[in-house]
Amino acid sequence: MLRGRSLSVTSLSGLPLWDVQGLPIEDLLFFEVAWEVTNKVGGIYTVIQTKAKTTADEWGENYYLIGPYFEHNMKTQVEECEPPNPAIKKAVDAMNLHGCQVHFGRWLIEGSPYVVLFDIGYSAWNLDRWKGDLWEACHIGIPYHDREANDMLIFGSLTAWFLKEVTDHVDGKHVIVQFHEWQAGTGLILSRARRLPIATIFTTHATLLGRYLCAANTDFYNHLDKFDIDKEAGERQIYHRYCMERASVHCAHVFTTVSEITAIEAEHMLKRKPDVITPNGLNIKKFSAVHEFQNLHVLYKSRIQDFVRGHFYGHLDFDLEKTLFLFIAGRYEFSNKGADIFLEALSRLNFLLRVHKSDVTVVVFFIMPAKTNNFNVETLKGQAVRKQLWDTANSVKEKFGKKLYDALLRGEIPDLNKILDRDDVTIMKRAIFSTQRQSLPPVTTHNMIDDSTDPILSTIRRIGLFNSRTDRVKVILHPEFLSSTSPLLPMDYEEFVRGCHLGVFPSYYEPWGYTPAECTVMGIPSVTTNLSGFGCFMQEHVTDPAAYGIYIVDRRFCSPDESCNQLTQFLYGFCKQSRRQRIIQRNRTERLSDLLDWKYLGRYYMHARHLTLSRAFPDKFHAESSPPPKTKGFKFPRPSSVPPSPTSSQHSSPQNSDIEDEDERYDEDEEAEKDRINIKSPFSLGQVPHEKKKQHGEHKN
């Protein structure tokens, strides 16, 4: 293997070192191809955007991203410039000369990577010819009415053309290309069919058919080996897309996926076992002050409390200091994202809190975009009433303060009965009367277009969570992405997450799960499942995830009712925590953020690049002779202090949030140091573990 320099992945707060012999970067070019380069559609955008800095730091001027051109994205995210590499410049010029429109520039994100963007519409006149090329290469036909698949064919054909031009002028450099998802897969198929001298990696973040099957409420994980794949894809009219995805998988030198659970799925759906698992990470930014994230929680929680004051005006008979804010967020996939089981668990939690006469109130937000036609008038009125009350209180406070100030200057103790005149009392009475309402606080902030058939609203009607005074669980559906410019809840998503107490994501189908990962790096506890990639990752790395604020619901080996009861117990136990216990738990949760840093997880992608070079160019490269040992990985140990939730001795009712346990001795710095020292053996980059045999009692839920 050619060796240019030694590369060592630095240990992060005690994470294990991984010493590998570095690739000769100066003799290589690395391209990543994805439909979501500069084009935010879903989670792959987050993967590429957050990973760019780590990859650019490693590869420098030899790292390029390839994606589609959209004018609005180009104007706001990309700074056009000339290609610094002669081979890239020749390829861009040659394609532009032959009737294409190729744009080159720097993507204005961390790392500022170079991007090559193809204008799909400008080259659409080649579609019929390129359909013939694909048929010649792999006998896959694409129907004319599938606009998305046709766009992907154009994108893939342009990618293969570009790579051909690059390899023709690369002057001895070897080229690595990583393709993300089936949308980019056509470029891989055509490149291999034309025998381009490139090393290829194909990464699937979720199988196409798996997502369709789970959305149809099938018993997916129990029947992975029983599905008639061709029949299922044909019935859903995605057979051509499935063939494109499967052909991409089998054409690649190295096949990777994002989690163990998705690796098992891919082996059955796509008929190839992944070579490497590449978990998704984030760019972790540590505060200079250790507990600054706790201060941010207090700041943003107060903003959410302001919204709640307005939304529940006239029914604000609960103590906001003893109110917990929970949320679920993501695509509106009712069953896949676990909204069904979450609502059922909330109904049971409401019963438990009422039976035990708890003074804890739980306000739950559903941040899931759906079709709406406008804001709910009652919700807008609530925020207007709150603001009017605030202005009234401020005006009375100013008059009161001036009279008090004048009296004290005269050396008198003011008569409190005279300091407020009749007009002040009248204003306050009118303010009180304005807060009266005859209806219950709305369960949704917008007017839903399909109100009668909406799955969340239909379930709320069935379980009877209508935000009545007796309910200890209140529900708010916000069917729109959060924005700091919103007149209702003016907060960005990150600010909102930091202000909440718990994120709940009991997904049935979640190949990775960025939402609980984002909660973790912000120090917010979360609920996930053993069917999500994130949940499996945490089970492997952390001895007792719940002690660190990662609650993992068993949705694979339990019945739906058992899973719902387990989730209810997690939520009820969380409600029992004192305020101090929640602070301790947030500290522990935030310490897990190092596990999700690309500086650590980037090593999996490095391993995949080593492997593909050794397979594509075996005469010049070979994989490490002594691969990393196959171990169960390192684990964060069980915290040495008392558990963060009162699981050892259950009480009949939750503790008050302001009660502190004087016997609980806790030193945050000391415990963090113990965690750092006690991390176990180095983590493995070995192959995907063999699929576990199904256990008796495995259920779909």
TrEMBL record:
Pathway: Glycan biosynthesis; glycogen biosynthesis
BP GO annotations: glycogen biosynthetic process
Assigned keywords, A-Z: Allosteric enzyme, Glycogen biosynthesis, Glycosyltransferase, Phosphoprotein, Transferase
EC identifiers of the protein: 2.4.1.11
Reaction(s) the record says it catalyses: [(1->4)-alpha-D-glucosyl](n) + UDP-alpha-D-glucose = [(1->4)-alpha-D-glucosyl](n+1) + UDP + H(+)
GO cellular component: cytosol
Chain segments carrying region Disordered: 622-701
Entry-linked Pfam families: Glycogen_syn
A molecular-function term among this protein's GO annotations: alpha-1,4-glucan glucosyltransferase (UDP-glucose donor) activity
Classification via InterPro entries: Glycogen_synth
Compositional bias ranges of the Low complexity kind: 647-657
Bias (Acidic residues): 658-672
Top-tier EC class: transferase
Compositionally biased residues, Basic residues: 691-701
The keyword Transit peptide is assigned to this record: no
Family according to the record: Belongs to the glycosyltransferase 3 family.
Function: Transfers the glycosyl residue from UDP-Glc to the non-reducing end of alpha-1,4-glucan. Glycogen synthase participates in the glycogen biosynthetic process along with glycogenin and glycogen branching enzyme. Extends the primer composed of a few glucose units formed by glycogenin by adding new glucose units to it. In this context, glycogen synthase transfers the glycosyl residue from UDP-Glc to the non-reducing end of alpha-1,4-glucan.
Annotated protein name in UniProt: Glycogen [starch] synthase
Native species: Vombatus ursinus (Common wombat)
Upper lineage: Eukaryota, Metazoa, Chordata, Craniata, Vertebrata
Gene: GYS2
